[in-house]
Amino acid sequence: MAASSNAEQTQLQDMEEEDAGMEEREMESDEEEGMGVENSDDEEDDSSEDERENEAEIQRLEEQLSINAFDYNCHVDLIKLLKQEGELFRLRKARQKMSELFPLTEEIWLDWLKDEIRLTEEEPNREKVYELFERAVKDYICPDIWLEYAQYSIGGMGSPGGIDKVRSIFERAMTAVGLHMTKGQTVWEAYREFENAILSTVQPPPGRIPSREEQELLNTQLERIHTLFRRQLAVPLMDMEATFAEYEEWAEHGVPETVIHQYKKALKQMEKCKPFEESMLVAEPPKLSEYQTYIDFELKEGDPARIQITFERALAENCLVPDMWAKYTTYLDRQLKIKDLVLSTHERAVRNCPWTMGLWKSYLLALERHGADHQVVSDVFEKALNAGFIQATDYVEIWQAYLDYLRRRVDFSKESSKELEELRGTFSRSLDYMKQDVEESKWISLRFVGDPSCIIMQIWARIEALHCKNMQKARELWDSIMTKGNAKYANMWLEYYNLERSYGDPVHCRKALHRAVQCTSDYPEHVCEVLLTFERVEGSLEDWDVAVQKTETRLNRINEQRAKVAEKEANLARQEDERNEQRRKAKSDKKAQKKVQKGTRFGEKRKAEQDDYHDEWNEDSAPKRHRGNGDQTTEEYMETETGLFGRNAPPGYKPVPPGAKKAQQGAAAAAQRQNDDKPELRNDNSSVFISNLTYTLEEPEEKLRPLFETCGPIKQIRPVFSNKGSFKGYCYVQFESQVSVPEALKLDRMEVEGRPMFVSPCVDKNKNPDFKVFKYNTSMEKHKIFISGLPFSCTKEQLEEICKSHGTIKEVRLVTYRSGKPKGLAYVEFADEIQASQAVLKMDSMEVEGNKITVAISNPPRRNMMDKPGSIYGRLSLLPRSLHRQSGPVGKVENGTTAERVQATASASVNAAAETKPLSNSDFARMLVNK
């Protein structure tokens, strides 16, 4: 009742303030009219113009949501605009739509709840607000929402059962957030204040002796408050010393020893947690690493309630981190195993991160584990299919999880049952789903790529053979598998053969192996051997003769094909050698002709060339390094006039103008000789290696010195130049002390004239050949997209303008050559995975200045030239591909695409010879031709 009167007073106060405001506005209007103010019409025009613009923006956002209802940022922007315009009905509808798709943050819920409370002051409408609060507390565990819920319920305590309802809400709040180390104390104090307010209503007036009933009611209320103090003091909370002092003052007979014991125990626990709380106070949101450390500590402590509240606090600030949800749900599945808690947490996980297949899969397993209704499991699976996974393989895995669930429901002792028919129907539906080719969704057309080996069909065939004893259906399924491009792989035929061996008969085993010999192209020797072994065990002499004849014929044909391919590649290699020789001869003739024409002093020229050659080979400041950045690899070796062992200059390389080049050459040579004359000045332990600088960087020493002087006193900066005087894009910075090196490494990837500068430890690759520094990710980055096909004129600002409509941009990086010339490639990092996946769907095949761009999730390939077959010191060998011996399939992965199967076979003897004694391409050609 007190709360209701307060609400009425607040309403009256608002009405009085509104009336006063209207009077003030009328007075101002009269004053303006008296003063002859003429700009009121202009202000009205500006206001109406703003309203029109806002309405147009609202309509645009609503249209965008009608196209893509899962655009989270679009929902947030629409709600902000509608609230600004005061469109209460549309605002409520917008919030409702967003809450159906996503969990709402604490701020959005509190705004919505406060608006609804103001709109429903009358008693009959309180139930609607209660329902809204119940939805709010399920999204995240937020102390402020629980506190608002309890305080709102106090306003209805005058209704029948109102006090009990308030206590019930407070008790639920204690269970949910009472252990919150920093905010839990506020909820405890609100609960005690409520009970103290009840106490004041049951206390008799001073001087009057209470009746027996009044005394019992008074004692009961006092005991409630005592109990609340004792419960709170047993929980480790920040500033709990003040609560203990308050209890000492409030308790008439002092604090019991048992309470003091519990308080000291909680205080000790609070001191252990205090460093983690303090670290989070100074950390920047979302504090993921700090929460991870805190959670690991609580997991070691082993208190389930504290582990749960710590997870909930972490997820309130990191709700879009799938790994955090996975860790939490795994803990609940394996440790607590409380059905309602487990299932509600799984549901919240998939609502927050719907694009993560693993969370949906865990949800389905949890539903089955806790005996959920079959319809509920089916509904969750359908939602998973529409969640919009990033990878095609995710669809295969979620189908597999659901099919496993359906298989476990079937009683195979019955020849036919409703569950078995549903299982077969779902298998058939999954196959139809995989082979769809719907134009409006590029992912659907890619789903078959996620199951190239037809795993689902293989499982179905095995179930039909093992459980249903239906080999005819299993064979039909394997026929279909082989028609989908798998007939050339030996392992597929052997899988089919093993199925026939286990559940079929020798006739079909023999038939399968004969087909395998005819069709296999990757490892035909292996299937031939299996066929001969089978006939040794099962077959007659006639069967053996047929098998021997068939295998010999097949292997002879395979060897002929391999020889033709090898000969063709050898001829191509020989032709390439001849062309290279002709180019070298022409270049040599041209040089000789120029020397004759110029009539220069041959002796001095020769001496200069020898000096340059000596400088180049004594340049120990250019160790061999591999630097991968997701889009290019930088290698430094000895350079000649034509590049790396005759290699052309890097694409985009711009030569220095003749005048500047001559001056630069003299300065570079002088600096280089000066450094070479003082080898004792070099100290790798106090030096860093700078690379990936642009070739056209003018005066690199002066450019880099201000950047690295902030790390400590510099002893010397050594830029590395070629024998022609051009800057090679890397240098050394040597400090006076080793303590400066860690600070310098922090400057790694800082942009210098539009290129990321690589800063790495100074390590001699000759002494440490295994040392590698890899500065960019080589695994899938789901929050980042890779764009190719951009026009060379596209700037960073233009690309950011194109991408920002699809989400929050964290970084845009255009890929360029060292000379600064663009490659037409870019990486764009978004705030989360949802925005990146939406950008891929919307931007792929978009035209930018007449160029059709390709957009995919960033999945850079690993770059290691030393690991490639036939790679010798970073140079690709001309050994024919057919002669490379590989032990297994080699996966070819391009950025943003799925790995494709590539099989290769060759002669082991040729490979062994290649390893023991290097042969030229001509040697290979002669060897193959003479076969």
Can you characterise this structure?
Keywords: Coiled coil, Cytoplasm, mRNA processing, mRNA splicing, Nucleus, Repeat, RNA-binding. With 931 residues, this protein is of the alpha+beta class. Among the domains are: 53-102, no CATH class; 684-761, Alpha-Beta Plaits, CATH 3.30.70; 784-857, RRM (RNA recognition motif) domain (Alpha-Beta Plaits). It has 35 helices and 20 strands. A hairpin with a 5-residue loop joins strand 12 (809-816) and strand 13. Helix 8 (162-177) runs antiparallel to helix 9 (184-202), helix 13 (288-301) packs antiparallel against helix 14 (304-317) and helix 15 (322-336) packs antiparallel against helix 16 (339-352). The longest helix has 58 residues, at 541-598. Mean pLDDT is 79; it is low at 1-38, 437-448, 604-654, 658-662, 676-680 and 863-917.
Strand and helix map with partners:
Elements: H1 2-35, H2 40-67, H3 72-85, H4 88-101, H5 106-119, H6 126-139, H7 143-154, H8 162-177, H9 184-202, H10 212-233, H11 240-250, H12 257-282, H13 288-301, H14 304-317, H15 322-336, H16 339-352, H17 357-369, H18 374-385, H19 392-409, H20 418-434, H21 442-446, H22 455-466, H23 471-486, H24 490-503, H25 506-519, H26 524-538, H27 541-598, H28 602-617, E1 626-628, E2 633-635, E3 639-640, E4 643-644, H29 658-676, E5 687-691, H30 700-708, E6 714-721, E7 727-735, H31 740-745, E8 750-752, E9 755-761, E10 773-774, E11 781-788, H32 796-803, E12 809-816, E13 822-830, H33 833-843, E14 847-848, E15 851-852, E16 854-858, E17 871-872, E18 875-876, E19 890-892, E20 900-902, H34 908-916, H35 921-929
Parallel strand pairs: 1-10
Antiparallel strand pairs: 1-2, 3-4, 5-7, 5-9, 6-7, 8-9, 11-13, 11-16, 12-13, 14-15, 17-18, 19-20
Helix pairs in contact: 2-3, 3-4, 5-6, 5-7, 6-7, 7-8, 7-9, 8-9, 9-10, 10-11, 12-13, 13-14, 14-15, 15-16, 15-17, 16-17, 17-18, 17-19, 18-19, 19-20, 22-23, 23-24, 24-25, 25-26, 26-27, 27-35
